[in-house]
Amino acid sequence: MSDIDHEYTDNLVCPFCGHEDTESQETSPGDEDLGLIECSNCEKCYYGTRNIRVSYSTEKATYDTCKGCGAEDVPVENLHSSIGKYEGLCLTCGPKEKHRLEVEYIKKFTAETGQEALDDVCSKTD
């Protein structure tokens, strides 16, 4: 009897008959332990586990003069989102500006919808 490749595969594979379940992707996120599964081909049961793979990517940071504080040759970043945008701010000025934009967005949203402001978010300054 030949060995069946059933570990770390792209789909569930029955370890008894080798049948590949091509609908394996339909399981819910967070369900790593899939429990006991009956093979639709040989009708034998096996345990399934979803293995999560992680990969990383990197890119060089941009070094420039911060448009907020004027610090020279520091990593600067840009933010473009639904709450607002900024460009060329250092790692100190960027988070402060992002927080200011978030507070401004929340205040505008709550004023438009009549909902109460999120005091714990809006009360944070700097």
What does this structure look like?
This protein has helices at 93-113, 119-122, and strands spanning 12-13, 20-21, 33-38, 45-49, 62-64, 74-81, 84-90. A three-stranded antiparallel beta sheet has the order 5-6-7, covered by helices on one side. Strands 1-2 form a two-stranded antiparallel ribbon. A two-stranded antiparallel sheet has the order 3-4. The protein has two domains: 12-49, no CATH class; 62-122, no CATH class. A hairpin with a 6-residue loop joins β3 (33-38) and β4 (45-49). The protein is built from two helices and seven strands, in the order βββββββαα.
Quick take:
The chain is of the alpha+beta class and 126 residues long. The protein is 20% helix and 26% strand.
Give the SSE layout:
Elements: E1 12-13, E2 20-21, E3 33-38, E4 45-49, E5 62-64, E6 74-81, E7 84-90, H1 93-113, H2 119-122
Antiparallel strand pairs: 1-2, 3-4, 5-6, 6-7
